[in-house]
Structures are given as C-alpha cells and as structure tokens.
Amino acid sequence: MTFRPDRRCVLSGLATALAVAAAPRFALAQAAGGAHALPALPYEPAALEPHIDAQTMALHHGKHHQAYVDNLNKAIADHDAVRAMPLRDLLRRLPELPESIRTAVRNNGGGHANHSMFWSIMGPKAGGAPAGEVAAAIDRDFGGFDAFKTRFNAAGTGRFGSGWVFVTVDPSSGRLEILSLPNQDTPLMDGRPVLMGNDVWEHAYYLKYQNRRAEYLNAWWNVVDWAAVGRRYAAIRNGDAII
Ligand code: MN3
Asked: What is the pTM of this model?
C-alpha cells in the first residue's frame, strides 16, 4: 500500500502537535524537519536507588532509548510524509506506512514512546499508593490497589521474553485494563491510551536483579510517581493526545 497523506492528515498532525505544545508535561521533542529527540531524564540516574540502580538507568536511557530514537530517525529519513507525522500518529497508523519501514517504525517508534512514558511516571519522591480519581478507578475496576498490583505483576512475570505491561483506559467504557505486549508494541498502535507501564525487558533490571523479574516488578512500585500517573489519567479523560 502506498502511503499518501491527504490534507486532513497533515492538518490533524498539526492539531496534535499544537495540542501537545499546550500540554508541556507530555511534550516530546520533534524538530521542524520531523527528527525525533531523546527526552532528558527528569531526575538523576541514581535518583531511583536502591530500587533501580544508577548504572541501569544511565544505560537504559542513554544507550537503549537513544538507539530507538536514532533508528527511528534513520528509518524515516527518506520519507517526507512520514517525517511530518507526530509519533502518536506514526504508531496509530502503522499499517498505512510504506512496508519497507513499517517494522523499523514499529520497533523503534514503539520503543521511543514506551520509554518516554516510562521515565515520566517514575521519580525519587514516589511509591506509596495512588490517590484521587485514579485511585477510585483502580478500586472500581480491580477491587483495590493490592489486587491491582497483583494482577499487574502477574502480567509482567507472564510475559515470555521481552515486552511491557501496560494499563490502558478503554475508550468506550472508561475502564482501566491491564495488558502485556511483546517487544516494543504499545496500546497506542490500537488507538488506546497508555496510563502507565513497566518495562520487563531484561535490560531494565538484569544488572541488579539478574533473572529475578518478579523481584524487580515488586520493587518497581516504590518508584512509581502517582502524582504523574494522576496527571496522565486526567489528560486521558480530557481527550488529550499523550504519548
Ligand atoms: Mn527498555
């Protein structure tokens, strides 16, 4: 299939870019020429110690995420129409992209989106329990925070090989749902918003936890920034185009 963006596509891309600009918390840098950029880590690599070690954070952000950004830019370099699209549209409209770059955009664009979300929902002043509307939604849809964590961790340990565990918000019912996806796939590829997620690739935990993924999944709750997750929940309910 040939990818031919029509005028509406370009305009909706522009509208999305403007919407993102109006919500700087979720903004992802993309140059005028369409090049995607690595977002800065919003805290020091050691800030999540002892639960996630500084070396893992530095490599994960500076090497792994940077490579996804670089390889995404490489894949789209010769495709002007694709370069004009915001990341969110790239992922939602994968089947419309030229077949020669579809897999590279899926893997590296997905990696860019997933990691950008990941850094933003963790922090040094984190842990504890959710509050406000997101807490109420977790109680409503999972029967409490402990049951939610148990379900989320089970999805993480159950993912064979590399992948992610996500919480999405069903667009029609508004219910929260936990799902795990392989590789760098994201619910954004199905047009579903991502509330939060955890990376269960070995590179996310192996230096400190080796093969003990379940231990990493348990420890991770200590670095979840529920205020950030609450802001994402409000943005999703507001219909904002967040990554
Ligand atoms: Mn990763």
From this structure: 0.89
